[in-house]
Fold this sequence. Notes:
Distance between the termini: 24 Å
CATH architecture of one domain: Alpha-Beta Barrel
Number of helices: 17
Largest sheet: 9 strands, mixed
Shape: globular
CATH class of one domain: Alpha Beta
CATH superfamily of one domain: Aldolase class I
Radius of gyration: 22 Å
Strand order of the largest sheet: 10-11-8-7-6-5-4-1-12
Amino acid sequence: xxxxxxxxxxxxxxxxxxxxxxxxxxxxxxxxxxxxxxxxxxxxxxxxxxxxxxxxxxxxxxxxxxxxxxxxxxxxxxxxxxxxxxxxxxxxxxxxxxxxxxxxxxxxxxxxxxxxxxxxxxxxxxxxxxxxxxxxxxxxxxxxxxxxxxxxxxxxxxxxxxxxxxxxxxxxxxxxxxxxxxxxxxxxxxxxxxxxxxxxxxxxxxxxxxxxxxxxxxxxxxxxxxxxxxxxxxxxxxxxxxxxxxxxxxxxxxxxxxxxxxxxxxxxxxxxxxxxxxxxxxxxxxxxxxxxxxxxxxxxxxxxxxxxxxxxxxxxxxxxxxxxxxxxxxxxxxxxxxxxxxxxxxxxxxxxxxxxxxxxxxxxxxxxxxxxxxxxxxxxxxxxxxxxxxxxxxxxxxxxxxxxxxxxxxxxxxxxxxxxxxxxxxxxxxxxxxxxxxxxxxxxxxxxxxxxxxxxx
Length: 457
């Protein structure tokens, strides 16, 4: 496989989700002994937002705010607590200690103060936590959703990493992309959150949004530098086939004229990484995230990509535990039925083979921008060059990877393409698995795509 540097497909997980099958659902208590003394991470999915953004492809429902939202989410939380109880009674789970928690969605900040307190309390009483564990909480920077009182509550409940889904600091661009968030509200919430002293605040942004230009992007990066968050995430706007935005563009909506090409988006990403590194001293964590310091770098994602287990709970959530990759049902009725019967709501799963684990180490190592040769050898009993020399060699020759006696790494010039480069380590049977997004070249008319070489020149 030869890497195409186009930033078209973000690699969420390896092996790909396509390998999951109903026939492989389930784990056995006999595996409990193998779980002992190994760290794990928790993910809780809250599938609700004030309103669903037009580009969103997740299993999420818009339920408004205030009491209306609380009423809509309470029955789901009751079910989620039952799922937590099922895992809390499992010997193989209780053999572990939790290194990080991530509550995501949707937006968990839609929950009421009481609901947040109950959820965090439920987690605290159900699992064992390592000293200094990371506790991340996603939030939507809207003053009707994320109030000062909720920020106070999050700090008091031990949240260490607050992630704010900003996406853009330009209200015009937010509106074009079907998103009701406003810059002035975010700035007030962010300023107050900084006074509370969270260990880390992460700001999420999207590159290549409808209506974005290089000029507006440069202005935004300057504003990010002024805000100086501990962590910055920069995700490419992908046109997933199940989003309302993609549907409208496929049917010829006039906004298609405001969509930039993949090559133009890559220029935005390259500019952002270079500017944040050079002017702000940020350090890349992967192809879509930067940190001010390794002391405040996100533990959760990096640890999972480095091979640690993720126990995921909630509607449609996915995880990896004891060599099983699994996903919960995305059907609310089925989720309720299974949990109320005392059964785990896992719809499909796959036992990861040793061959897949080896490929996973390489794929995720590239995603986090470096992989120690000693780490690979300790996990798999061979040097990576012995197993993957025929893949590594051409990539090094092309300047996409660097290899020395200690490690394999992605050079700074190609950081933004790590998700493209890592696919060269996919097993042959996984390379043709379908993606679920629409190529920008199908939307942008009248100008040919430029190569990545043009972006890097």
